[in-house]
């Protein structure tokens, strides 16, 4: 069943022992260790950028999924009108967001990643992947989608338990969304005038799927497909939000994680405020809504109701964390 990949791997200086399925790609046991064969749909300039970025990170001690070059020095193999790459890989497990030690390790690694010196990459190369204007556009689009989802429910002839809870919760979350966007926009305008918003190369998907601990408890950072030139708080916000959701918005845990990051990469007041307002935005409410309404079947899984109930139950603790975070920023 893996014969179709033999022509691809034959273009590399590796000896294949076996193929396996795993993580939405093909794992390859080779004489040079475990590798991953993956179809990619990225543009060639993005793949080249990722390769140069990974070289820098590897040289500075990061454990990452570096791409291999073919015998001809290429990063991509084309087969049947598709593009493939082969990366280094390891057996391991995803980070436990309930484990404070592991979260603090990951946050520290993130701060180090944002501190990396990029002088060996020409600025004109990574500026092609500037995502600076995408954040507000995405949130504004999410708000429009929330309205569309609510109107869709209202037009239904009968309402499920999820629908009722969604309608009951909607006004609160929508007002929080509008308030967050207003504060984000105001902060960006003020910070831009003062030139207080710095951009770095971010990972773009710094989450549990891409943070893998090996048997020696070393953290490996995988999948740089979403790497971009953006605000560092984009990565940190994503990490803090997921950690807080998994830990019932534990204020002490969350502030400790932010503090661990800023020990390595210092954020100014406006950058931290921007992160707080991103956390204020009801991203989880939008995600649950989006998932629920885009299922192409009449039967809706009960898990969506469970997730919405949990979200509503955690809201007071989330608000408390954001208030404490803003107080932390001002002090």
What does this molecule look like?
Helix 3 (100-114) packs antiparallel against helix 7 (233-246), helix 3 packs parallel to helix 8 and helix 9 (269-280) packs antiparallel against helix 11. The chain has 2 domains: 3-89, Phosphorylase Kinase, domain 1 (2-Layer Sandwich), CATH 3.30.200; 100-330, Alpha-Beta Complex (Aminoglycoside 3'-phosphotransferase, Chain: A, domain 2). Helices cover 52% and strands 14% of the residues. It has 11 helices and 11 strands. It has a 5-stranded antiparallel beta sheet with strand order 1-2-3-6-5. A 4-stranded mixed beta sheet has the order 4-10-9-7.
**What summary fits the major beta sheet?**
5 strands, antiparallel
Order of strands side by side in the largest beta sheet? 1-2-3-6-5
Instruction: Based on Cα principal axes, name the global outline.
Output: globular
- As residue ranges, the low-confidence spans are none
Strand tally: 11
Beta-strand residue fraction: 5-15%
The name of the CATH architecture of the largest domain is Alpha-Beta Complex
CATH topology of the largest domain: Aminoglycoside 3'-phosphotransferase, Chain: A, domain 2
Look at the structure and give the mean pLDDT: 91
- Note the run of SSEs as H and E: HEEEHEEEEHHHHEEEEHHHHH
Name the CATH superfamily assignment of the largest domain.
Aminoglycoside phosphotransferase (APH), C-terminal lobe
Report the C-alpha radius of gyration, rounded: 22 Å
Tally the structural domains: 2
Instruction: State the separation between the terminal residues, measured CA to CA.
Output: 61 Å
Helicity, in percent? 40-55%
**Separate helix tally:** 11
CATH class of the largest domain: Alpha Beta
Find the structural class using helix and strand composition: alpha+beta
